[in-house]
């Protein structure tokens, strides 16, 4: 296990070098997207339309931030949401966009893990229940599309040293399966 400093956008080489349990401090631009935004992304892909944001080499954070307080880039919380809600859309999104990483909490389906292996993507876990702590890493926040979705709009966060752990690497190693298995021995 190692501690790594990463900056977005992420290259395929960087992503392929990551392993489950690696601790990461992520800096750069990160885009938020929850299920409503994913549904719209996939509808645009299905129609052959261009997405309103270029996700190539980028990171999607499954987060619906609380509204920003005056003078602050984000509200009091920007914690992860349950990633499984995006699983129906994720394989198509990975295939069509060149997305390199996702941040959320909880397990992913086998179809998502298969797509991560095929398209070279990694899944980072953020600590659930630590949204106020995670929000401290956000330096700026801007709505970039789907503003009508409110907190489920797509935001671009500039982050510095966002604390994450590699939960599923681009080879399909899965901490959600391997971690508990170690306790059963």
Protein architecture, described:
- The chain has helices at residues 12-17, 35-47, 90-97, 110-119, 131-135, 175-183, and strands at residues 3-7, 23-32, 59-61, 101-104, 122-125, 138-145, 154-168.
- The mean pLDDT is 90.
- It has a single domain, classed as fumarase (Alpha-Beta Barrel).
- Strands 2-3-4-5-7 form a five-stranded mixed beta barrel.
- It is built from six helices and seven strands.
- By secondary structure, it is an alpha/beta fold.
- The two termini are 21 Å apart.
- Helices cover 28% and strands 26% of the residues.
List the helices and strands and how they pair.
Elements: E1 3-7, H1 12-17, E2 23-32, H2 35-47, E3 59-61, H3 90-97, E4 101-104, H4 110-119, E5 122-125, H5 131-135, E6 138-145, E7 154-168, H6 175-183
Helix pairs in contact: 2-3, 3-4
């Amino acid at each position: 296990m190692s501690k790594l400093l990463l900056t977005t956008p992420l290259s395929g080489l960087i992503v392929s070098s990551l392993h489950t349990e690696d601790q990461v401090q992520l800096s750069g631009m990160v885009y938020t997207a929850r299920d409503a935004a994913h549904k719209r992304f996939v509808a645009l892909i299905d129609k052959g339309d261009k997405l309103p944001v270029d996700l190539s080499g980028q990171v999607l954070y499954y987060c619906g931030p609380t509204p920003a307080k005056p003078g602050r880039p984000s509200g009091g919380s920007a914690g992860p949401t349950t990633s499984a809600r995006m699983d129906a859309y994720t394989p198509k999104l990975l295939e069509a966009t060149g997305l390199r990483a996702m941040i959320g909490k909880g397990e992913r389906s086998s179809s998502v893990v298969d797509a991560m292996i095929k398209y070279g993507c990694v899944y980072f876990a953020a600590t659930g229940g630590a949204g106020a702590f995670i929000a401290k890493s956000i330096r700026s926040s801007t709505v970039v599309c789907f503003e009508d979705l409110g907190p489920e709009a797509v935001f671009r966060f500039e982050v510095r040293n966002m604390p994450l752990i590699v939960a599923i690497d681009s080879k399909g190693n899965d901490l959600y399966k391997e971690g508990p298995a170690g306790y059963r021995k």
